[in-house]
Amino acid sequence: MDLTCTEEEEAFRARLRDWLTAALPGLPPKPPPQDWPGRRAYDTAWQRALFEAGYADVHWDASPTRRLIFLEETEKAGAPYVGANFVGLLHAGPTIAAEGTTEQRARWLTPILRGDEIWCQGFSEPGAGSDLASLRTRAVRDGDSYVVTGSKIWTSHAEVADWCELLVRTDPEAPKHRGITWLAMPMDAPGITVRPLRTLAGSTEFAEVFLDEVRVPAVNRVGEENDGWRVTMVTLSFERGTAFVGEVVACRRTLAELARTARKNGRWDDAVLRRRLGRLNAEFTALWRLTQWNVSEAEATGGVPGTGGSVFKLRYSHARQELYDTAAEVLGPDALDLSREWTLDRLSSLSYTIAAGTSQIQRNIVAERILGLPKER
Amino acid sequence: MHFQPTEDQRALRTGVRELLEARFGREALRASGARLDRALWRELGDAGFFALRLPESQGGVGLGLPEAVLAFEEAGRVLLPGPLVATHLAAGTVAGAATGESVVTRVDGGLVAWLEEADVVLGDAADAVPVRSVDPLTPLHRVASVERPGPEAVLLTAAEQLGSAARTTELAVRYAKEREQFGRPIGGFQAVKHLCAQMLVRTELARAAVYAAAVTGDPVETAGAKLLADEAAVQGARDCLQVYGGMGFTWEADVHLHLKRAWVRAELGQPAAQAEELLAAAL
Ligand SMILES: Cc1cc2nc3c(=O)[nH]c(=O)nc-3n(C[C@H](O)[C@H](O)[C@H](O)COP(=O)(O)OP(=O)(O)OC[C@H]3O[C@@H](n4cnc5c(N)ncnc54)[C@H](O)[C@@H]3O)c2cc1C
């Protein structure tokens, strides 16, 4: 058991740190949450800068340790997180890299890395959330295209996306897991309507996407027809396996800030609150260690992250909510002020036990796939 | 970075597990009471359990804290009785501790475990008063002085808690696969399944924390590891008891022994309030 990095990894860290120190001051101010075009421009400019400096593909790096170093250092330096590039970098890209043809990799991977093209995820439907495999959006083969009709919901970044990783039903007669296909759909195709949905935080993070006879070229199919569920499992393992890693570092920073605030405003004298902050310190330190453990394990066994991601996500999503509830205790009445960053963060933390699979679904995964308990049905 | 046990560390863990399985199985656990099995103590000594971290030049095995943590985790799994931590830490300073010839205990908080069976007591136990110990396999005395052991003792106690948490998770999962109600294994019911999943999550988080603290040796990280391992062991035993149903409430099942020992260990080393204060001060 070793927590030290190799000389080469430390050299990578040092180079990255130097580059961040030089690159960050040139960054324009972050646009407000409602300004979607502004946010897209901001996030893609940062991705372009990373590309030019040679760091763009770090999420796909053969060395997961380097990925951890990257997330740790960028987060510590206060650099932007992936933002609108989330789906492209953290799951569509890795899925295409793992399952796509040579032409597909050539077509899509570089634009993702350069920040030229934004992706969104069209998985969930009004009638298919936790039970994703019951999705009904239909795709009928017509010549060299699929004609897609149906609707998707909770599609993050749909308003600014160029591409959508879309799950469609290509065989309605087959058992529900067998008739699904994974398509890359251009978001400017005729027949697509995006209707933004307002979240409880007041922002428009996600949208409803209506699909009315949208033509998607058959060459955009990743994996075989009707084999989309298997491809989806690859996508989801990336989503759950690595997507939250960088945020743990951010939580540790927030916690330290919280302690400073409490010392200043007198709340620190409350032993119950102080002990709660102490416990959160243990929690986030351990979550970071658990990440290193999972990554080391994946590195040893090679390839796609394992179910350890579900173990992590379960604990992390609840710890994050606990962190912002504690922040509210530190702030007192100020916690009701929407102009405080922590108030907005508290609101957005409420999605972590739902998005990318609810806690109930994660517990099913842990119980059935790791512990081998019988399936419910 | 390679935060996984090495080949040697895995081999060590397997070795300790096999020794304990052969020498301290369920019958031995059941038969043991307030008396310490001296022969077993010496066998542990022969196997290097106490001398694990003593330099080879002093007749020890010359290994580090991570290896000790793996060995203590195994001891925790099987609820091995005795003042294991105190004797291990006394190796090299108290004669006979390293070889298992002497049993060494110490004042820990307001408690002393195994006072009457010990050859050497570290700390002031002159005013010791016997307690009717909640754990039938850990005799306890109360003392006035509240000396606290250092971070290494805290971490090794946490490692035992981790082993116990892993064991109760295994027990619950096994039982949930075997026991049938309503015509199917209870493990197919989501309420039971989710209890088991939460047990694993707590155990794995505690594992990462305990192993990392063993590698860094950092006292703050150690305090966090103890806190999470206490939680995993105590709540794990409670959940296991629930999964076992009525059987869990019997003396026959091992579950209560895990819970009672977990309560004792939670009080030793660094209880929650102190760990949390230390962790807060470090923020
Ligand atoms: C902020 C945010 C962003 C999102 N972004 C995207 C995106 O970009 N693309 C996309 O495709 N989706 C996205 N989602 C959707 C997300 O994946 C779903 O919301 C989630 O999987 C839950 O599905 P649902 O909302 O339909 O809830 P439901 O499945 O209806 O669940 C409702 C409740 O029932 C429980 N439940 C359901 N089934 C079971 C079961 N078998 N056992 C126990 N309990 C059960 C759930 O745990 C939950 O508590 C996003 C969601 C959020 C909140």
What does this structure look like?
The complex is a heterodimer of chains A (377) and B (283). By secondary structure, chain A is of the alpha+beta class. Chain A is 50% helix and 15% strand. In chain A, the strands form 2 sheets. Chain A has a 4-stranded mixed beta sheet. A 4-stranded antiparallel beta sheet of chain A has the order 2-3-7-6, with no helix packed on it. In chain A, strand 2 and strand 3 form a beta hairpin. Chain A is globular, with a radius of gyration of 21 Å. Chain B has 283 residues and is α+β, with helices and mostly antiparallel strands. Chain B contains 10 helices and 6 strands, in the order αααααββββαββαααα. Chain B has a 4-stranded mixed beta sheet, covered by helices on one side. In chain B, strand 3 and strand 4 form a beta hairpin. Chain B is globular, with a radius of gyration of 19 Å. In chain B, 55% of the residues are buried. The model of chain B has no long low-confidence stretch (mean pLDDT 96). Classes of the chains: A alpha+beta (377), B alpha+beta (283). Chains A and B meet through helix 7, helix 8, helix 9 and helix 11 of A and helix 6, strand 6, helix 7, helix 8 and helix 10 of B. Chain A: It comes from Streptomyces pratisoli.
SSE blueprint:
The complex is a heterodimer of chains A (377) and B (283).
Chain A: H1 7-23, H2 36-53, H3 64-77, H4 86-99, H5 102-114, E1 119-122, E2 138-142, E3 145-156, E4 163-169, E5 180-186, E6 192-197, E7 206-217, E8 221-222, H6 228-242, H7 245-265, H8 271-301, H9 308-331, H10 341-349, H11 359-370
Parallel strand pairs in A: 1-4
Antiparallel strand pairs in A: 2-3, 3-7, 4-5, 5-8, 6-7
Chain B: H1 7-23, H2 26-31, H3 38-46, H4 65-77, H5 84-90, E1 104-113, E2 120-122, E3 129-131, E4 140-147, H6 151-178, E5 180-181, E6 184-185, H7 190-216, H8 219-244, H9 255-267, H10 272-281
Parallel strand pairs in B: 1-2
Antiparallel strand pairs in B: 1-4, 3-4, 5-6
Helix pairs in contact in B: 1-4, 4-6, 4-7, 6-7, 6-8, 6-9, 7-8, 8-9, 8-10
Bound molecules: flavin-adenine dinucleotide (FAD).
Organism (chain A): Streptomyces pratisoli
Protein name (chain A): Acyl-CoA dehydrogenase family protein
